[in-house]
From TrEMBL:
Pfam families assigned: FAD_binding_6, Fer2
Molecular function via GO: iron-sulfur cluster binding; oxidoreductase activity
Domain 2Fe-2S ferredoxin-type: 2-88
UniProt name for this protein: 2Fe-2S ferredoxin-type domain-containing protein
InterPro entries, per database record: 2Fe-2S_ferredoxin-like_sf (IPR036010), 2Fe-2S_ferredoxin-type (IPR001041), Beta-grasp_dom_sf (IPR012675), Cbr1-like_FAD-bd_dom (IPR008333), FAD-bd_FR_type (IPR017927), Flavoprot_Pyr_Nucl_cyt_Rdtase (IPR001709), FNR_nucleotide-bd (IPR039261), MRET (IPR050415)
Organism, scientific name: marine sediment metagenome
Domain annotation FAD-binding FR-type: ranges: 89-185
Gene3D superfamilies, per the entry: 3.10.20.30, Nucleotide-binding domain of ferredoxin-NADP reductase (FNR) module, Translation factors
PANTHER family on file: NADH OXIDOREDUCTASE HCR, OXIDOREDUCTASE-RELATED
Length: 310
């Protein structure tokens, strides 16, 4: 039986056991959220040891070289010496600059990192309020901007968002490394972009649109957003101002109740179009077939779903 050595603890586990589950059974303080390898909350470090490739998928080359892995994606095959992730030691400190409530129960959070963060517009990262409380959120800002921006959906009974509301300017939070495939590629410069978002799935897609425009994207960018809130899109004022200055940007702000009708009317005017989709898992799933039926092949559809904690 493989043995896990974790900061002074010795655990015997069955070969092939899931590492996250094994650490939880032992009541060790391992963080977790999605269990799908997307949020990166369950990081552990196993330097200078063989690590299954699946356990490092999505991590940066620097993280991989330092022996970081995702416990939820790691099957234990041999003895391992592990160190649990500590946001205060391993994360990037960032100070709360401003917090602003927007329509639709969205909190606009701006942070000032204590050193530069490497990221691409549209990627996501972990925000830690404490060593045991962190969640993954998409970046709504652009690289090079002084502040990092996030759009936090406030949920009744949500542990993270309810505690964040008590935050104050100057308070220190800790950030993980940026990751994710939802980012603009300059090679797309002459391909029409169809950006489809619901809720705070707008955060990464509006950033991606602005990044494309800064990179002198020459084709049309069409941004759709469906809102479930009576007041409509929480970022409406900012987006309308952007459309006034960017001729190739087309904007459609719709109610979520109109989604099915809008999808039936969807027409793809160019075979080179790329569709980027972000929102809840049910929203992303609902769009896959209509996009395929509209003429987009699988590689032309890039999506990212917000997964609930499970």
């Amino acid at each position: 039986m493989p043995e896990l050595t974790v900061q002074g603890h010795h655990l015997q586990v069955d070969q092939g056991d899931n590492l996250l589950s094994a650490l939880q059974v032992a009541n060790l303080p391992i963080n977790w959220s999605c269990r799908a390898g997307q949020c990166h909350s369950c990081l552990v470090q196993a330097p200078k040891q063989p690590i299954p490739a699946a356990a490092q998928q999505g991590l940066s080359p620097e993280q991989q070289a330092d022996g970081w892995l995702l416990a939820c994606q790691c099957a234990v095959e041999s003895d391992m010496q592990l160190t649990l992730h500590d946001p205060a030691n391993d994360g990037l400190p960032a100070l709360i600059e401003t917090m602003e409530k927007l329509p639709g129960d969205v909190l606009l959070l701006r942070l000032r990192p204590q050193r530069p963060l490497r990221y691409r517009a549209g990627q996501h990262l972990m925000i830690w309020l404490s060593p045991q409380l962190g969640r993954s959120y998409s970046l709504a800002s652009l690289p090079g901007e002084a502040l990092l921006e996030f759009h936090i959906q406030l949920r009744e009974g949500g542990l993270f968002s309810s505690q964040l509301l008590h935050g104050r300017p100057g308070q220190t939070l800790y950030l993980g490394a940026a990751s994710g495939h939802l980012a603009y590629d300059p090679a797309w410069h002459d391909r029409p972009l169809l950006l489809l978002a619901s809720g705070t799935g707008l955060a990464p897609l509006q950033a991606l649109a602005r990044d494309a425009l800064q990179n002198e994207h020459s084709a049309t960018i069409t941004l759709w957003h469906w809102s479930s809130h009576a007041q409509g899109c929480y970022l409406q004022e900012r987006l309308n101002a952007l459309v006034e200055t960017e001729q190739q940007l087309q904007l459609h702000l719709r109610a979520r109740s109109e989604l099915a009708t809008d999808l039936r009317a969807l027409r793809i005017r160019s075979r080179s179009t790329l569709a980027l989709v972000c929102g809840s898992a049910s929203f992303v799933e609902q769009l896959r077939r209509p996009l395929f039926m509209a003429g987009l092949a699988g590689p032309q559809i890039i999506d990212e779903a917000f997964l609930p904690r499970r």
